[in-house]
Design a protein that fits this description.
By secondary structure, this protein is α+β, with helices and mostly antiparallel strands. The protein has helices at about 5-10, 55-65, 135, 155-160, 165, 180-185, 200-215, 250-260, 260-270, 280-300, 300-315, 320-325, 330-335, 340-365, 365-380, 390-410, 415-425, 470-480, 480-485; strands at about 20, 40-45, 85, 90-95, 95-100, 105, 140, 145-150, 155, 190-195, 230, 235, 240, 275-280, 445-455, 455-465, 490-500, 500-505.
Length: about 500
Amino acid sequence: AHDQRDFEFARKYVIPMQIVIQNPQQDLTLSEMDAAYVEPGIMTASAQFDGKDSEAAKQDIGKWIEQNNWGRITCAYRLRDWGISRQRYWGCPIPIIYCDACGVVLVPDEDLPVILPNEVQVGKTTQNPLLSVPDWINVPCPQCGKPACRETDTMDTFVDSSWYYARYTDPKNDYQPFAPAKADYWLPVDQYIGGIEHACMHLLYARFFHKFMRDLGWVKCDEPFARLLTQGMVLKDGAKMSKAKGNVVDPQYIIDRFGADTLRVYLLFASPPDKDVEWSDDAVMGAFRFLNRVWRLFDVHRELIGTHNRSLQESDPTTSIADKNADDSGVEALSASVLSDDIAHLRYMQHRCVKRWTEDCLNRMQYNTAIASIMELLNAITAIRDTDRLSPAEVTIYVEASHALPRMLYPFAPHLAEELWLQTGAGELLHNSGMPQYDERWLVLDTITYVIQINGKIRGKLEIPCETPEEEIKAQALEVENVRSHIAGKSIRKIIVIPGKMVSIAVS
């Protein structure tokens, strides 16, 4: 009852079945099963193994079989031969010469590498194109000098792609595949990114080659890649884009109409990089509107953002506004209690969003949430309506938050980001100016807003000082007007406080 093919066979020919792995979530009965149960579960009808987890029981059953001399535990690798030869022109020539007198002869080391001919007739024959170049094929035997011929098959391109990463460590070496010292410095590859179709072939071959090079002493590390990210695919109408299905979207059309930055932001924001994404024209428009909001912010406040930055740089042209605000003197000025609540919140949002952006980009590789952090910061900046009434210290905070936007946008929308950076009056290109920075000192709020839920539904909000004790938070949450009206006449069963986020009230 635990293999689908066996299940279907038994049902077809009315063969009795036995449940030996029980679903821990709900009891299985054969009369109600319409498919085999193939998930892990609890052993049943299995003698001394009853009640055990099925995955853990596999080892116990194996040991029991060995103890009774009925068999032994072994590993089946299912290795197969790998045919690497191809009847293609563009592969690496196989350095073999066939001689009627000497048999199979290796091309001498001094004649390596074997170079492919240029005058080959590609597309004019159904045979191997190299057969069209007899001057290249017919050569004297390296051992006896009699007429012989080259091997015309070439190596599969998988052979090249199985060790290219190691060659990258020393690409100009004319005497070795690579110098072991350079490979030891660079390898393993820190981050490998590829499609799921690479998992069963290319990555398997790359690991095979790497283990082989390790055994030869060419590399010291055991694995070629330290970290793997398998990227998702772009789907259209629920299927992978392909010419055969006629569901391909021409990216040039999107680029011509909305720009390359819009296309990049859409694809990176639509889903985590390891998940598939369904193509959506409406979502492309959403990315376009977002980038336009950023542009309008800089366009409307062009003078404020650019002039303020230039005035700060006049005293030291090599120092950016972000660097100046990191000085101790700047910290004292910007930590004054005269800041309005909106500006204090903006400063907090800037450093909070930059911190999340940094973690998402560098550590988690979750680019969709990194872009969401940019959107959050943009919302916080545009919430400041009247910039004319800002004090000099507040203007500095406002401008610094604005300058963080192009820096955060740069990996996703480089063309727009570079243009916006130019408008800030910066003295160098954005790609030379470094990553956005955050300061832990500005990540502490004086007050926290708690969302209040009653039986899972939001009924109010509560803003209280950060250091408020839990019991006081509960008491104040019950005093919120809309909360009181929803709990009137009801019995409070439980109140749970999730620090810094939520108060959950269960009533009956």
